[in-house]
Amino acid sequence: MPEEPRKKKVALPNEDAISSHLCRRVKQLRMERGWSLDSLSQACGVSRSMLSQIERNETNPTLAVMFRIAQAFGMSLGQLVETPGATSNVDVIRANDRAFHYRSDKDCQIRTLSPLHLEKDVEFYEVTLQPGGALRSSPHYEGTREFLTVQKGRVRVESADDVEELELGDSASYRADVRHAIVNVGKTEAVVFLVDIYR
Fold it and tell me: N or C: which end of the chain has fewer CB within 10 A?
């Protein structure tokens, strides 16, 4: 019987290295966004003095505090504490991952194609509409636009009083800070890719 290959020992970072990395990471993310300590404090609800101590590696913050800081940066706790290069730079969203199914009923299914932790100035969706199905939306924030490409079927795009019909391969951009809709006007299922850009 052949010998089992020996498992390589994985070097784990010690507590001081993790703490040191964390304080640098918080400061780096804050500086990249051009935020002051006061700005970050307002965004996450953690006191300015506590944030200052974290950045100077003078305290060990609780998990709850780090979670609030991560949320302020628009990322998960894991992403906040990860060491660059330790994980893949590729975010994958699997087709069957139900966490990304935003809406699902008999007329309309919406699947989020952009990572949930992304800064929300851009959102990317796959929208599937059954014949006669519609996705009707109230006005988004002022300046918001939608960009749509038809992957399958035929749809009508409505933006306030403006209306256009689109077929396979057609694209359109339109104001989404007014009432707007995507309606399947064909006899078969329609699939569109939709990008929302918030300004």
Answer: N
Give mean pLDDT, residues 66-78: 86
Distance CA 66, CA 62 (A): 6
Question: For the chain, how many residues are written?
Answer: 199
Res 32: pLDDT: 86
Domain that holds residue 150: 98-197
Q: Which amino acid is at 182?
A: I
Do 107 and 181 lie in a common domain? Answer: yes
**Locus of tokens 């959102």:** 123
Contacts of 52 (CB under 8 A, 6+ apart): 37
Question: In whole angstroms, what separates CA 99 from the centre of its chain?
Answer: 12
If residue 65 lies in a helix (H) or strand (E), which one and from where to where? Answer: helix 63-72
pLDDT beyond 80 at 101: no
Q: Let me know if 4 is exposed, middle or buried by CB neighbors in 10 A (0-12, 13-18, 19+).
A: exposed
Asked, for residue 9, whether it belongs to a domain, the answer is no
Domains held by the chain: number = 2
Query: Of the candidates 148, 149, 135, which has an alpha carbon nearest to the alpha carbon of residue 179?
Result: 135
Taking the CB of residue 92, how many other CB atoms lie within 10 A of it? 7
The secondary structure element, H or E, covering residue 20 is: helix 15-32
166 contacts 119 by C-beta, under 8 angstroms: no
Question: Is the same domain home to 49 and 103?
Answer: no
pTM score of the predicted model:
0.56
CB–CB of 139/179 below 8 Å?
yes
